[in-house]
Design goal:
By secondary structure, the protein is largely without helices or strands. The protein contains 1 helix and no strands.
Length: 84
Amino acid sequence: MKSIKTRSLVGKDGILHLDIPVGIQDKEFEVMVIYQPIELSTPSKTPEELGWNPGFFEEVIGGWVGEPLVREPQGEYETREPLF
């Protein structure tokens, strides 16, 4: 069983037309369609509405006050034998 997710626009006739290529010919399929309208003008939620503590991002972003972070040299990569 495979799952395909797609978005499509319903025309003025109120009918949703689906063309789903499956790459197999002369075979019978069982198909299940679940549809859900998409709200196009959904206002974005605040961080608090998404479950973040109030002021979290203001406290965290740019909040590092310690000594500067330094990435140490990474050394040389080892040479491995080819697989094939």
